[in-house]
Amino acid sequence: MSDKTVSQSPNLSRRALLKAGLATGVAAGAVGAARADGDPLITEIQDWNRYLGEGVQSRPYGTPSEFEAHVVRRDVEWLTASTESSVNFTPLHELDGIITPNGLCFERHHGGIAEINPADHRLMINGLVDTPLVFTMEDLKRFPRENRVYFLECAANSGMEWRGSQLNGCQYTHGMIHSVMYTGVPLKLILEEAGIKTNAKWIMPEGADASAMTRSIPMEKALDDCLVAFKMNGEALRPEQGYPLRLVVPGWEGNMWIKWLRRIEVGDEPWHQREETSKYTDLLESGKARRFTWVMDAKSVVTNPSPQAPVTHGKGPLVISGVAWSGNGRITRVDVSIDGGRNWKTARLDGPSLPKAMHRFYLDIDWDGSDLLLQSRAMDENGYFQPTKNELRAARGENSIYHNNGIQTWHVKADGTVENVEVS
Amino acid sequence: MSKFLKVLSLGVSLAALPVLAGAAQAGDPDKGAKVFKKCAACHAVGENAKNKVGPQLNEVFGRTAGALDGYKYSKAMIKAGEEGLVWDDATMTTYLEKPKAMIKGTKMAFAGLRKQEDLENVIAYLATFSSAAPAAEDAQSAAEPETAEAEVETAAANATAPAPAPVSAMREGGVLGLGRVATEDEVAAWDIDIRPDGEGLPAGSGTVADGEGLYSENCAVCHGDFGEGVGRWPVLAGGQDTLTEERPEKTIGSYWPYLSTVYDYVRRAMPYGNARSLSDDDIYAITAYLLYLNDIVEDEDFELSNENFAEIHLPNEDNFIADDRAEEPHYADKSEPCMSDCKDSPVEITMRSRILDVTPGSVDDDDAAGMGGVD
Fold this sequence. Notes:
heterodimer; A: alpha+beta; Sulfite Oxidase, Chain A, domain 2; Immunoglobulin-like; 5-stranded mixed beta sheet; 9 helices; B: mainly alpha; two-stranded antiparallel ribbon
């Protein structure tokens, strides 16, 4: 553990700090290396090896180790005027696999976190239906359910990078994404329960929070794979993720996944709500703006090494790891370049490959200690390849904010530090 | 023999089954009160009962169908009344069993009560709010349950019917019979959205001059006296002709396609932290004032209302296009991508985050402000 990590962890107890300091001090310069007299962490009996630890129930709801206290969501304070209408970011560089732990899923609120007792929550279906209905949470749990892993990416993820590299860390450049397993009821079943009229072409989900968030969604999508979810990764949704109920709109921009879902209106035309006019429309160089750009195209990023996760071990075996995802289905391949896109190697995908879910890739290399320009390029099952940032700029200009799925470059320097750069 | 009596005798013929034997007795008003929960979304009964989705049901027995003053019945129901339909135990049983089978075209969106005992109980319950007796005297005299049977029935009911009862059977369309019918008041309370064609607008109006006062009281602290935005709070006015510039200013006047979005959004979400606190007229006035701040109307006496709302168009309406990302060159290229020697010369670094670095912890807040937002 580096000193930097320790000082970044405000939650470490004094005792832990002292111990950590001591340990680094003793093993200085040769962490884990054999010494003539042996590694004292091995040759000396450690406290945890002698004294009893805390008993069961000391942490009735388990929490991460105190040594992981730096693994948290972080925000960019100057970005917004108030934290209730703001965003924070998933620490992608600290995670592995394809599932984001619930407490680390990035947050984006428009009116703060609504705290709702599930007994007081209602879901209304109204508009072009045979019978407008009201469901309690208990009612919803009597519908047949499904379990599905999906990524959720904010359309503005990497939005700060349109004009060039700005933020030093994949948490900030790519952290408006998470990937969890949802348990919920197919939206189709709930709509059918109310009976949709033949002229029904759109739905508009609405949140119960102080922004009463709304989006228009075409009926085709609503009947295809949307879920009304109450669980994430097996446990109840977290309040910041819409407890007790949220909409899941697989592969489509995160803003549409209405949290604290309280109503779904059925209609024959879209509503053109604020979040699909003022926001979530993509301004092009011509001054025209695209609207209803729902799908999140294939994208990937190397999470390790990256600016917040430098190489600390010197040359030799290096695990290059990252995540890839596509709103259009499965990721079938990820190529990695270590020379800024001149030459590519196909990385190894590992772990389940599920449509519209995060995928994990690895490229295991023998690092010679020279500078690297690391890139990753995802391909999805439709043969779509992730574009370069310059290809996107050529097509759209620099004012789109949303849907920046361009290839990211990290400059790994000989000393192992990493910087966010752009290349020719 | 009326249909009601037929039903009774059917019940009696099944008297060997203890549970059903209970159902053969005339209804129990207390149990009927529970059954009435299925009706309560649409009907009120009792003191001060008002018409809801359906007519109030005081004094319904002896009443001609479709004849309550002040309630708007379907044509079918009015016709049935004109043809002599009067509500009594028999006619109501038939109606409640399958409303649409008895009166084709009735607007009562209710599938019907399946259980005879529910029918009898709810009729007994409604009878307590009518001075006219619902049923013939002999039916009433049959209403002395044998204690033992009644107990069996209660026990069985408790075992099979957990409270609160599901609302199956009470409506059309349902597949699983889950949920309950939303009342008109409930829908009205939540369904406040407005479309560009004006659908959903409440009746009302407000002038620019009224809006000015309301805006400076409720909005200006954050959005600025002229909609210029204080600090990092959103800008609401100005920015015309900046959409193709390096730093476009997207406001109601420069960017938003529809005025309906302004009314809808301000009503649902503003003032920030005190949503839904302004009246419909206030929102008309504030919306008019926002038009004024954006030079879309120039007269301080201009009054915006549900009548003239749809006539107003925002300047940028025509500049929105459908998602045509698929037309971009990099979408078309489905060939195998280049794997080696893809660039002529070694790659150069053209930009470093160090230059612009705005990463938290490495930046002076004021320099960073305006670097672009997350939106």
